[in-house]
Description:
27% of the residues lie in helices and 19% in strands. It is of the alpha+beta class and 110 residues long. The chain folds into 2 domains: 2-37, no CATH class; 49-109, Trypsin Inhibitor V, subunit A (Trypsin Inhibitor V, Chain A, 2-Layer Sandwich), CATH 3.30.10.10. The strands form 2 sheets. It has a 3-stranded mixed sheet with strand order 3-4-5, covered by helices on one side. A two-stranded antiparallel sheet has the order 1-2. Strand 1 and strand 2 (36-37) form a beta hairpin. The longest helix has 19 residues, at 2-20.
Amino acid sequence: MRKEKTVQTVVFAGMAITGLSGCVVNISDNGTGRAEAVPPPVPMMCNAAPAQDRVGNDATQAMGEAILKDSGARSLRWGPPNAAWTMDYRDDRVNVRYDAKMTIVEITCG
């Protein structure tokens, strides 16, 4: 009975610590001696406008990397011809559609 009680205590303590791990606040004194909350990192957002000059180019890995950099997106989704896409929208993703000749026909965010 005692061993079972100890196991329950350890499991409960682990669950409590895990639950509180999401409550951590990042604090820095920034060299001032006063503690200040550090703002969260700025999320990467897609902006397809700077990449529009890539339409008409070949759909290659190098071109995909350039589009990703130009758009500021975190991820890239290729859209082959006649393919169905999910409707999930992501602010940090750039979509690149290409035709049967592997030519880029559309660059959008989402």
